[in-house]
Design a protein that fits this description.
- With 305 residues, the chain is an alpha/beta fold.
- It has two domains: 123 residues, Rossmann fold, CATH 3.40.50; 163 residues, Alpha-Beta Plaits (2-Layer Sandwich), CATH 3.30.70.270.
- It contains ten helices and twelve strands.
- Strands 2-1-3-4-5 form a five-stranded parallel sheet, with helices on both faces.
- A hairpin with a 5-residue loop joins strand 9 and strand 10.
- The longest helix has 21 residues.
């Protein structure tokens, strides 16, 4: 999807006029700034979705603007495309001039539009993907579930049982490794199923979408691999005992079971499913049922409902 706000920085009025007309023609709202204006004040006042900066006239001035934006945590993720006088000239040092992309002049506008679209697609992917597992996040998950409504697929919500006390007892580093480990297991299992989707809601919650006829096999495979690998997280004494000692918020000692999985499976061809929120509601209830088991388990919703 193309941006709604593009800021163009260049003293070349002919160039900015062309850019304005072409970008306006594909639905963008453009703001044109000359290098003589207070550029940074304008950018801070009306933050663009993407910035196009002309580096052919005054490279040092443009480089300073780019560096200032990149050093500001709020604006550091704004995509910046640089316009060079010629791509045959020496390419800038990207560490000193951290652009997202560049294009030479004279401008091929079709190429520019592609680069604009790709820059924004990358930005959306970076913001949506979970930084720990690099799996698609909530926006992508919601879109994938919406696409799956009414199809012969199943949405599987995967949750780690007793993860919080494990995190508190053994530390966040090992906790993060458990999450990454589960991410790899879920992703590999979904890939082996032939086709599907795998996303990370956050924390120890994952979602995968697979063909309905393969859903139970996928769940069994995820559980089998997780239960086998998770044993390596504990020493022989804890494995033999089946629990470890933790501390409650009140400072009392408690016996905490080993990590296990609960998976709620929601067939997407049920008539009662009209929107994503209903899918999440059913999945939450299914996971509660699965958690009743002492170990890893999955629960599939009743197709007749």
């Amino acid at each position: 999807m193309l941006p709604t706000k593009v800021t163009i920085i260049s003293p070349d009025t002919q160039l900015t006029s062309q850019l304005h007309l072409r970008l306006h023609g594909i639905g963008c709202r453009t703001t044109v700034l000359s290098c003589k204006n207070s550029v940074m004040d304008e950018v801070y006042t009306d933050t663009p979705d993407l910035l196009i900066i002309d580096l052919s006239d005054n490279f040092e001035y443009g480089k300073n603007i780019i560096s200032t934006l990149r050093n500001d945590s709020f604006f550091s993720m704004v995509p910046i495309i640089g316009l060079l006088s010629s791509i045959e000239e020496s390419i800038p040092d990207w560490k000193q001039c951290p652009l997202d992309d560049f294009i030479g002049q004279p401008i091929n506008f079709n190429e520019l539009f592609y680069r604009v679209s790709l820059a924004l697609t990358r930005l959306k992917r970076i913001f949506d993907n979970n930084p720990l597992t690099r799996l698609p996040g909530n926006t992508s998950i919601q879109m994938a579930i919406e696409d799956a409504l009414g199809t012969s697929t199943a949405v599987c919500y995967v949750d780690i049982n007793h993860f919080k006390p494990y995190n508190n007892t053994f530390g966040f580093t090992l906790g993060d490794e458990v999450i990454r480990m589960l991410a790899r297991i879920v992703l590999n299992t979904v890939c082996d199923a032939g086709r599907g989707f795998c996303g990370h809601v956050g924390g120890d919650d994952f979602v995968c979408i697979v063909p309905l006829h393969r859903a139970e096999l996928v769940c069994k495979t995820i559980i089998t691999h997780f239960d086998a690998v998770v044993l390596d997280l504990f020493d022989d004494e804890i494995k033999q005992r089946g629990f470890y000692y933790g501390t409650t918020r009140k400072g009392e000692q408690e016996n905490i079971p080993l990590l296990s999985l609960s998976i709620g499976v929601v067939p997407m061809n049920m008539h009662k499913l009209k929107h994503v929120a209903k899918v999440s509601e059913i999945a939450a209830e299914l996971k509660k049922r699965a958690k009743i088991s002492s170990g890893s388990s999955y629960t599939v919703d009743n197709l007749s409902s």
